[in-house]
Write a structure and sequence with these properties.
Blueprint (H helix, E strand, L loop, with lengths): L6 E6 L4 H11 L10 E6 L5 H13 L5 E7 L2 H5 L4 E4 L14 H19 L5 E4 L4 H10 L9 E3 L2 H15 L6 E2 L2 E3 L7 E3 L4 E2 L2 E2 L6 H13 L1 H9 L5 H16 L7 E6 L11 E9 L2 E4 L7 H23 L5
Parallel strand pairs: 1-2, 1-4, 2-3, 4-5, 5-6
Antiparallel strand pairs: 7-10, 8-9, 10-11, 12-13, 13-14
Bound molecules: nicotinamide-adenine-dinucleotide and (2S)-2-hydroxybutanedioic acid.
Function: Catalyzes the reversible oxidation of malate to oxaloacetate.
InterPro entries: L-lactate/malate_DH, Lactate/malate_DH_C, Lactate/malate_DH_N, Lactate_DH/Glyco_Ohase_4_C, Malate_DH_type2, NAD(P)-bd_dom_sf
Enzyme class: oxidoreductase
C-alpha cells in the first residue's frame, strides 16, 4: 500500500526505444521507491502519439500498484505543467556514420522549447535529466531557456559512461562492481570524455597502480569513450536499456542520496571546478545529499588528467559556441 503523495514525472520521446525501458522501471518504483505513486506524463511528437498510447496500454496491462495516472500528449506546456521530474529523452538518435555534432542543429531547438516550458510550468522541485544527444549541450540549451529554475536542476546523463567504466574495470580486476568506488568520467558524453580511475578503490584499497598506464590509455579509456559507437555498430541502433537504467540510477541517487563519501558522475552546469568552464554542462564527480548534487572538491589532478579534461571541455566549448551561432542561445 503506497503512503506518500504522487510524483509527477514527464518522459519525452515516450514512443521511443529508451522510453520503452525507462517508463516500466519508473512505474515499478525503481526511482521513487515502493511507497511513492507516479503520475506519468508521456510527451512525443504528433505522429508518435498513437505509438505512445500503445506504450501506455502496456503499462496499464502490468497492473502496477504505483501508477497513479498516465497522460499522453504532444503539447510540451501540458507535459511539464507541475512536473517534479523530467527525463528529456526525445530527440533524433545518432545513426551509423553520424557524429554527435551532426545532432546539434537537429535537436537543439527541441531543448530550447522544452526549457521554456519547464521554466513556465514545472514544480519548484523540478529535476531534469537530459538523455537526448548531444546530451550535455542540450541540457545547456534547456537551462539557458529556464532562467527561473536553478542551474543545478538541469543535468545531462553521464551515468551511462560511469557505469560502463565501472563494468570494464570490474572485469579487468575480476572484482564485483559493488566493491569499486571513486570512478569519475570528466567532460562530455562523447568520444572525448575522460573516464578516470585515478582515485578508484576496491574495498577501500587503491587499484590504479596495478592497472598500468598503457592499459588505461590504450584500452580502458577508448573502450569506455567509444562504447556508444560500438553498441550502434554491433546492435544496429543506439543503447536503450542501459541508457534507461543509467537514467534511473541518476534520478534515484539525486532524490535519495549517494551513500557516505561515495560519489558518482553527473554532468551539470559547472561552477568552474577543476578548470572547467562556468555554465557549461560538464561531467564531474558528484555526491547527492539533501536532494542536491554537490561537486566533490579538492581532488588532485596531474598533467595526464589535465590534458584529457581540457580536451573534452574544449569540445563542450565548441558545442556551446555552435549553438550560440545557430541562434539557440543568447
Ligand atoms: P528513438 O528514435 O527510439 O526515440 C526517440 C523518440 O523521441 C521518438 O519517439 C520521437 O518521436 C521522439 N521525439 C522526437 N522529437 C521529439 C520532441 N520534440 N518531443 C518529444 N519527443 C520527440 O531514440 P532513443 O533510442 O529512445 O534515443 C533517444 C535519444 O537518447 C537519442 O538522442 C540518443 O542519441 C540518446 N541517447 C543518449 C544516451 C546517453 O547516455 N546520454 C544513451 C543512449 C541514447
Ligand atoms: C550512447 O552512449 O550509447 C549513446 O549516446 C549513443 C551515441 O550516440 O553515442
Amino acid at each position: 500500500m503506497s503512503s506518500t503523495a504522487p510524483v509527477t514525472v514527464t518522459v519525452t520521446g515516450a514512443a521511443g526505444k529508451i522510453a520503452y525501458s525507462l517508463l516500466f522501471r519508473l512505474a515499478s518504483g525503481l526511482v521513487y521507491g515502493p511507497d511513492t505513486p507516479v503520475r506519468l506524463r508521456l510527451l512525443d511528437i504528433p505522429s508518435a502519439v498513437t505509438a505512445a498510447e500503445g506504450v501506455a496500454m502496456e503499462i496499464e496491462d502490468c497492473a502496477l500498484p504505483l501508477v497513479d495516472s498516465i497522460e499522453i500528449t504532444d503539447d510540451a506546456t501540458a507535459a511539464f505543467d507541475g512536473a517534479n521530474a523530467a527525463f528529456l529523452v526525445g530527440a533524433m538518435p545518432r545513426g551509423k556514420g553520424m557524429e554527435r555534432s551532426d545532432l546539434l542543429s537537429a535537436n537543439g531547438a527541441i531543448f530550447r522549447d522544452q526549457g521554456r516550458s519547464i521554466n513556465a510550468g514545472a514544480a519548484d522541485d523540478i529535476r531534469v535529466v537530459v538523455v537526448g544527444n548531444p546530451a550535455n549541450t542540450n541540457a545547456y540549451i534547456a537551462h539557458r531557456h529556464a532562467p527561473d529554475v536553478p542551474a543545478g536542476r538541469f543535468t545531462a546523463l553521464m551515468r551511462l559512461d560511469h557505469n560502463r567504466a565501472l563494468s570494464q574495470l570490474a572485469t579487468r580486476l575480476g572484482a564485483p562492481v559493488a566493491e569499486l568506488d571513486g570512478v569519475v568520467v570528466w567532460g562530455n558524453h562523447s568520444a572525448t570524455q575522460f573516464p578516470d580511475v585515478s582515485y578508484t578503490t576496491r574495498a577501500g584499497e587503491p587499484v590504479t597502480a596495478g592497472l598500468g598506464r598503457d592499459w588505461l590509455a590504450d584500452t580502458f579509456i577508448p573502450r569506455v569513450a567509444n562504447r556508444g559507437s560500438e553498441i550502434i555498430a554491433v546492435r544496429g541502433s543506439s543503447s536503450a536499456a542501459s541508457a534507461a537504467g543509467a537514467a534511473v540510477d541518476q534520478m534515484r541517487d539525486w532524490v535519495h542520496g549517494t551513500p557516505g563519501e561515495s560519489w558518482t558522475t553527473v554532468a551539470l552546469p559547472s561552477d568552474g571546478q577543476y578548470g572547467t568552464v562556468p555554465g557549461v554542462v560538464t561531467g564531474l564527480p558528484c555526491r547527492s545529499h539533501g536532494g542536491e548534487w554537490e561537486v566533490v572538491e579538492g581532488l588532485e589532478i596531474d598533467d595526464f588528467q589535465r590534458a584529457r579534461i581540457d580536451a573534452s571541455v574544449a569540445e563542450l566549448i565548441s558545442e556551446r559556441d555552435a549553438v550560440h551561432a545557430l541562434g539557440l542561445t543568447d
